[in-house]
UniProtKB/TrEMBL annotation:
Transmembrane segments: none annotated. Gene3D superfamilies: HUPs (3.40.50.620), NAD(P)-binding Rossmann-like Domain (3.40.50.720). This is Cytidyltransferase-like domain-containing protein. The lineage of its organism: Bacteria, Bacillati, Bacillota, Clostridia, Lachnospirales. InterPro entries: Archaeal_FAD_synthase, Cyt_trans-like, NAD(P)-bd_dom_sf, Rossmann-like_a/b/a_fold. GO terms for molecular function: nucleotidyltransferase activity. Residues 9-135 form the Cytidyltransferase-like domain. It comes from Anaerocolumna xylanovorans DSM 12503. Keywords: Nucleotidyltransferase, Transferase.
Amino acid sequence: MKKYNIGYMAGVYDLFHVGHLNMIKRAKDNCDYLIVGVLVDELVVHFKKKLPFIPFEERIEIVSSVKGVDEAVPVTFENAGKLDSWKLYHFDCQFSGSDYAEVPGWLYDKERLEEVGSTIEFFPYTESTSSTYIKKLICKEISGKKLFLFGAGRIGQKFLQFLRNSNEDDKWNVIGFLDNNPEKNMSLIDRTIVFQPDYLTSFPDLKSITVVITTKESDEIIRQLREMGIHNIIPYNEFSGYTPYLYR
């Protein structure tokens, strides 16, 4: 007889690797029925401020196919909290990696779960492999300039499709949209994040950034970008995959 009846664990499971597999194996060894929550794209953006490499629909399909997973469920804003998840699934234990064992928020959640007859158990973290490490290796292989599209409206979306449907997509690493509308901040458009312009200041090398202005009114945006130290600026109607005109 196993230690727990129903077990639960949650994660992004982006670029699924042996560390994820080891966690699932350990969890299944300790429970009869294992539920695995997979964070939706919007929640990943909210917590990590970046989009997962693999979209949610594919990540949850991968997890649901792993031996030992009895049920794969989406984790949304409504059930992201541990107690909220417990109210849905009434698990006897939530499993997690030992890298969270001393995090105050997790210890507080463990106490709250114990009040309702559940708990949290931490397993050793597989230090040799992580999604973060894999992503760093991938990013080293990405060539081309960092590209932002200023304007997340109709023109910007059409320009994004232009890049994706042409060989220009191989030359540019499209990071996301920029938009001055605060209501669009951290939203997703065609699996591309919309940032506020001041996000650019988080990059140590501003010379590596190119901004294509995908709005009809560009003069004020050019001034705004120049004040931030961005000088590689291309109006969308002057963009060329061969000799883009740069405002210096």
